[in-house]
Specification:
248 residues; mainly beta; 1 helix; elongated
């Protein structure tokens, strides 16, 4: 039960109106006629479709994913392979293509007929990871040769030189970790085409570790390595490592 009290000097008509509106709202909520949320989920456009049979495609053919699992809002047509937005807003688009017969995969997501995003085989993405197996004593300006290669997709990294060469132009995530040995100052840097790009510097302690993770724009043929900025020992045994991956 609700009770109302009007203070002296207030506006009784306005307060009575507000009170009556609150009562009406509470009655509506109690009866279930007042609801909240973003509307019926069935109004949200969504679809999922798969490809049942193998296809041989020519350039710029639309892939018609013919087995429809979900088509909420009926925006997708399996006859054309086209999804038409039934309302304005943000959409999450996902597309997967598997190539057949050993032929290079070349597909793209199209928006209104224009190439929006390429889909390429993951093996086309340059990436490497290498660790240092043995402990080294370095002089200033020496390239650290991470000699145990775990991954070398695109063959851009050379364990003989310690240099990663970009095999395609784009953005790369670079990661380098160095652990010092013997209580010396850790003094190294990431080098791009021979120039000091980012320092890794640590105090004079045994087992000092520094890591740098820059995102770099590299042109095809650019060279990245980790070099010593001074004389110090570097721990091997996988405590020091170097990696890069093409991201866009």
């Amino acid at each position: 039960m609700l009770a109302k009290q009007v203070e002296a000097g207030s506006c009784p008509k306005l307060e009575n109106k507000i009170f009556d509106n609150l009562v009406d709202m509470m009655v509506a909520i109690k009866s279930g006629s007042q609801t909240s949320g973003n509307g019926n989920e069935k109004d949200r456009p969504a679809f999922t479709a798969t490809l049942q049979s193998h296809l041989t495609l020519s350039k710029d053919n639309t892939i018609k994913y013919d087995r429809v699992i979900l088509n909420q809002g009926r925006g997708y047509s399996p006859k054309t392979g086209i999804f038409t937005a039934t309302k304005s807003g943000l959409y999450l688009i996902s597309a997967t293509v598997m190539s057949n017969g050993g032929i290079a995969l070349g597909a793209y997501i199209s928006k209104n007929g224009a190439n929006l995003m390429n889909l390429k085989k993951e093996k086309d993405r340059p990436a490497f990871t290498a660790t240092l197996a043995r402990t080294l004593t370095l002089m200033k300006g020496i390239t650290i040769k991470y000699d145990t290669v775990i991954l070398n997709q695109g063959r851009g990294y050379s364990p003989k030189t310690g240099i990663f060469t970009a095999t395609k132009t784009g953005l790369y995530l670079i990661s380098a970790t160095v652990m010092s040995k013997g209580g010396a100052y850790l003094d190294a840097y990431i080098s791009k085409n021979g120039a000091n790009l980012m320092n890794l510097y640590g105090p004079q302690i045994h087992g000092g570790t520094k890591t740098a993770n820059p995102v770099l724009h590299l042109e095809k043929g650019d060279k990245v390595s980790v070099r010593s900025g001074g004389s110090f020992g570097v721990y091997g045994g996988t405590y020091s490592y170097f990696s890069a991956v093409y991201i866009a």
